[in-house]
Design goal:
Strand order of the largest sheet: 1-2-3-5-4-6-7-8-9
Radius of gyration: 17 Å
Shape: globular
Structural class: alpha/beta
Strand content: 25-35%
Number of domains: 1
Number of helices: 9
Largest sheet: 9 strands, mixed
Oligomer: single chain
CATH architecture: 3-Layer(aba) Sandwich
CATH class: Alpha Beta
Number of strands: 9
Length: 276
């Protein structure tokens, strides 16, 4: 592990870190904010998963989370959205390949060599956080935006004993039923659509996976609301399967970090109450 950048903010430490990942078979990068409370005691951890085209840097620079994280004493971990490097398979489109790992474990060549973001986020990265930082790993929660909102929800649904709470900003709710997800899943996971259900929030809930509650914030001016986000599908699945969904629709907000940063403090406070 190598710290490649460090800044002091709100009494805490904002770090950017690289390390060699066995899971993704390449060098990976993530950011971590250590609140001032972490100097004296183990702190709970909130993972933030970013969306298409993003890296750790987008939310680190534009997410406006540090004041709230320092107030509540929460470590914020922001991984990259995909493996990267000259040998990592890619396509020249924004919605697949580099910057678009979709938080799945790919089963199809050539992507299976590196694109194992689900295992990276749920296993390798938490192990590294536990080893290197003053983190209370009994108190972990997860959130994310767009593709990362999809990632946060599937990670929580598949690991309900690991994550205390889950929230999302404008998540891709049913990637199997959206063009972005259909393209990615067919290449990462193959043509058998039954295998896609293990990485699809709506399908997971339909198939019996549960968390007690989910918080979702969504802008009404989001250009992807009807084609990519598909919130009504999530509402229906939660309603029919006993998952408490708090859906907050916000007039005039789009899909950008102007939207995310406006409600980031709300999400951190929401998680803080559940992390204890």
């Amino acid at each position: 592990m190598q710290i490649i950048n460090e800044n002091t903010s709100h009494g805490g430490r904002q770090l950017v870190i690289t390390h060699d990942s066995e899971t993704c078979n390449c060098e990976m990068k993530f950011s971590v904010f250590l609140p001032p409370q972490a100097k004296a005691k183990p702190c709970p951890v909130l993972y933030y998963l970013s969306g298409l085209t993003c890296s750790h840097a987008n939310v680190t620079e534009k997410g406006e989370f540090r004041a709230a994280a320092a107030e509540h004493g929460i470590i914020i971990v922001c991984p990259d959205t995909s493996p990267r490097g000259d040998n990592v398979a890619d396509e020249d489109v924004y919605f697949f390949g580099l910057g678009a790992g979709f938080y799945v474990d790919a089963s199809e060549a050539p992507f299976s060599e590196h694109y194992n973001m689900y295992s990276y986020v749920t296993k390798e990265l938490p192990k590294l956080i536990a080893e290197e930082f003053n983190a209370d790993m009994s108190c972990q929660s997860i959130t994310g935006h767009s593709m990362g909102g999809h990632g946060a929800m599937i990670c929580a649904l598949k690991n309900p004993d690991t994550y205390t709470s889950v929230s999302a900003f404008a998540p891709i709710c049913a990637p199997s039923q959206a063009e972005w997800g259909q393209n990615a899943f067919s290449k990462y996971l193959g043509s058998d659509k039954s295998s896609w259900r293990a990485f699809d929030t709506v399908a997971l809930i339909e198939d019996g996976n549960k968390v007690p509650e989910i918080l979702v914030d969504q802008g009404t001016a989001d250009e992807f609301l009807e084609t990519g986000i598909r919130v009504p599908l999530l509402e229906k699945a939660c309603s029919e399967n006993g998952v408490d969904l708090t859906l907050r629709m916000h007039d005039g907000y789009d899909h950008s970090y102007y939207f995310i940063s406006s409600f980031m403090a709300d999400h951190i406070a929401w998680h803080a109450k559940r992390l204890g």
